[in-house]
C-alpha cells in the first residue's frame, strides 16, 4: 500500500473530506456541518494532563461556541473506547480550577489509522511520529479553511484566543472590515484601503468625521460590541 502523504492543508482551500467514527457516532466531514462554522482540533493523546485541561476548557465554553453557530470536533490518534473512558473520567472525577462535572458533548474522532491526522498535517514527525500536535482548523460554513493554528505537545492552547479568532473571522465577513492587532469586540475596526486618489483625498479631508485616518491607507471606524454580538452566529 502506498504510504499516506502527510499533507498540509492551507488557508483558503476546501477542507479535506473524510468519514470517521466519533464519540457521537459516524460523521461525514465537512458535509455534515455545511452552514455552520467548525473548529476541528487535534490533541496528542487521551488520559494526558494538558489535553485534559484543554477538553475541560472547551467543554465549559461549549454554549459560547454554539451561540456563534460553531461546532467543535476533536481528534486524537486513539481508539473509540479510550476516548469514551477518558471523557467519562473527565466528567466523573476531574475537578480542576473550579471546573468539574464537565460533559463533552461534541464529537471526538477516533483515528488510530492516522488517516485524518495525516490528511490535515496534524502529525509533525519532528514533534512526534505517533501523536498529533495541537492543531486548530477554523472552517467556514462553505467548508473553506479560514485559519490554522499549531501548538506543540507541551503547551496548552489559549481558548480565549480561539474564540477571538472565530469572532474576528465572523466580524470580518459580516461587516467587510479588517481587524487590527489584539482586536476584541468593541474595538475600532479597519475599513478597506482607499482604492483611488479621490477617495484617499476625501479620507484625509475627513469631512464626515466617521473615520479616524492615521494616513490615507489606514483608516478605522467604530463598531460597537453590541453590533458585533447581534450579528455573529446568525
Ligand atoms: C499532555 O497533554 O499532557 C501531553 C501530551 C503529550 C505530550 C506532553 C504532554
Describe this structure in words.
By secondary structure, this protein is an alpha+beta fold. The protein is built from 7 helices and 10 strands. The strands form 3 sheets. It has a 5-stranded mixed β-sheet. Benzoic acid binds next to helix 1.
CATH architecture of the largest domain: 3-Layer(aba) Sandwich
Q: What is the CATH superfamily label of the largest domain?
A: Glutaredoxin
User: Class of the largest domain in CATH?
Assistant: Alpha Beta
Shape: elongated
- Find the CATH topology of the largest domain: Glutaredoxin
Mean pLDDT: 95
Main beta sheet, described?
5 strands, mixed
Query: In which order are the strands of the major sheet placed?
Result: 5-4-3-6-7
Q: What structural class do helix, strand and pairing data support?
A: alpha+beta
Provide the β-strand percentage band: 15-25%
Number of helices: 7
- Number of extended strands: 10
Low-pLDDT stretches are none
Q: Helix amount, in percent?
A: 25-40%
H-E order? EEEHHEHEHEEHEHEEH
User: Regarding quaternary structure, how should these chains be classified?
Assistant: single chain
Question: How far apart are the first and last residues' alpha carbons, in Å?
Answer: 45 Å
Radius of gyration: 20 Å
Amino acid at each position: 500500500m502506498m504510504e499516506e502523504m502527510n499533507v498540509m492543508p492551507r488557508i483558503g482551500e476546501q477542507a479535506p473530506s473524510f468519514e470517521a467514527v466519533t464519540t457521537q457516532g459516524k460523521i461525514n466531514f465537512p458535509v455534515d456541518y455545511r452552514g455552520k462554522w467548525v473548529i476541528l482540533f487535534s490533541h496528542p493523546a487521551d488520559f494526558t494532563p494538558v489535553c485534559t485541561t484543554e477538553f475541560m476548557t472547551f467543554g465549559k465554553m461549549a454554549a459560547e461556541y454554539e451561540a456563534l453557530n460553531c461546532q467543535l470536533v476533536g481528534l486524537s490518534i486513539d481508539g473509540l473506547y479510550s476516548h469514551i473512558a477518558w471523557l467519562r473520567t473527565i466528567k466523573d472525577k476531574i475537578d480542576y480550577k473550579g471546573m468539574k462535572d464537565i460533559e463533552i458533548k461534541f464529537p471526538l474522532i477516533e483515528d488510530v489509522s492516522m488517516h485524518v491526522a495525516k490528511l490535515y498535517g496534524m502529525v509533525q514527525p519532528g514533534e512526534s511520529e505517533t501523536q498529533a500536535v495541537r492543531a486548530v482548523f477554523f472552517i467556514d460554513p462553505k467548508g473553506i479553511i479560514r485559519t490554522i493554528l499549531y501548538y506543540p505537545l507541551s503547551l496548552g492552547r489559549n481558548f480565549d484566543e480561539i474564540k477571538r479568532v472565530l469572532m474576528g473571522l465572523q466580524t470580518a465577513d459580516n461587516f467587510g472590515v479588517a481587524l487590527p492587532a489584539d482586536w476584541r469586540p468593541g474595538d475600532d475596526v479597519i475599513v478597506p484601503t482607499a482604492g483611488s486618489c479621490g477617495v484617499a483625498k476625501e479620507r484625509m479631508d475627513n469631512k464626515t468625521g466617521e473615520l479616524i485616518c492615521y494616513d490615507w491607507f489606514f483608516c478605522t471606524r467604530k463598531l460597537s460590541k453590541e453590533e458585533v454580538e447581534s450579528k455573529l452566529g446568525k
